[in-house]
Specification:
The chain crosses the membrane at residues 85-109. InterPro entries: DsrEFH-like (IPR027396). Keywords: Membrane, Transmembrane, Transmembrane helix. Helix content is 45%, strand content 12%. It is an alpha/beta fold and 249 residues long. It has two domains: 4-56, no CATH class; 114-248, Hypothetical Protein Ychn, Chain: A (3-Layer(aba) Sandwich). Strand 4 (200-205), helix 8 and strand 5 (226-229) form a beta-alpha-beta unit. The N and C termini lie far apart (41 Å).
Length: 249
């Protein structure tokens, strides 16, 4: 049995996803051994529990975003918070577990800090005054990916037209990782955007990369314009804490 100190995040991720069988022979650990290690080491058990919880949290957010009317523009600072927004924000932050020391009640009524969850199809850049926007792609579905790129370019167009600065992050995880990999069908589009706009960052989830490595048994090569981050979830939550709009494609 391997030492629990040598268990990698990729192995834990595979364990949580019931994909231990996809790990190559040199890193293989079966479910029985993993469970035994967890029983013997409370720290490892807690680590697995936290990772599973984080994955479930973000999954819950995706599933519980209302289909219509859920977008609230952060610039509406001086309007009374509607009960609909309060209930949506409360459910989101209960799902996220309340980020580092912030009380939900204080957060909800602080008009200066209002991160927003929405979906690509509902976001209207023509009327938005948002200055920090994160677009998350976790699928390689062509329609979803193209919609994300189209929206990103629309945001840039309208911000330029309004002479307003905006920061944009395009994060890919899970199956969406293929969008940012070498030989991606979107390579030229990403190159063009990166060369023309310095306010756009393309980021690839490190956990997705390690999982792909374990499955394919070869290193994952990203496009030169793409930055590797440790985990999409961590990046997303950190940006939400800092008032970024989160947009799911």
């Amino acid at each position: 049995m391997m030492d629990n100190k040598n268990v990698t995040d990729a192995q834990l991720n595979a364990f949580i996803d019931n994909e231990l069988g996809s790990i190559n022979e040199s890193e293989y650990i079966d479910e029985v051994d993993m469970l035994s290690l967890m029983d013997e080491n409370p720290g490892l058990k807690k680590r697995v529990s936290e990772m599973r919880h984080d994955m479930n949290m973000l999954s819950g957010v995706y599933k519980n975003i209302p289909i219509e009317g859920h977008f609230i523009e952060p610039s509406e600072k001086h309007k009374a918070a509607s009960m609909r927004y309060v209930s949506i924000a409360a459910s989101i932050f209960l799902v996220l577990g309340v980020i580092s020391g912030l009380f939900v009640s204080q957060y909800l009524f602080d008009k200066s800090v209002q991160p927003v969850f929405t979906v690509v199809s509902d976001f209207n850049p023509a009327t938005s005054d948002a200055e920090k926007i994160l677009i998350h792609v976790s699928s390689q579905d062509e329609n979803s990916v193209n919609a994300a790129f189209d929206k990103l370019e629309d945001i840039i167009y309208f911000s330029d037209m309004k002479k307003r600065s905006v920061k944009l992050k395009f994060i890919a995880s899970a199956e969406g990782l293929s969008v940012l990999r070498e030989k991606s069908p979107y390579a030229q589009r990403i190159k063009t955007i990166s060369e023309k706009y310095k306010n756009v960052e393309f980021m690839a989830c490190g956990i997705a990369m390690e999982t792909a490595f374990l499955k394919e048994k070869k290193a994952v090569t990203l496009l030169p314009e793409v930055k590797k981050i440790p985990a999409a979830l961590g990046e997303i939550m950190e940006n939400i804490k800092n008032s970024w709009i989160y947009m799911k494609s």
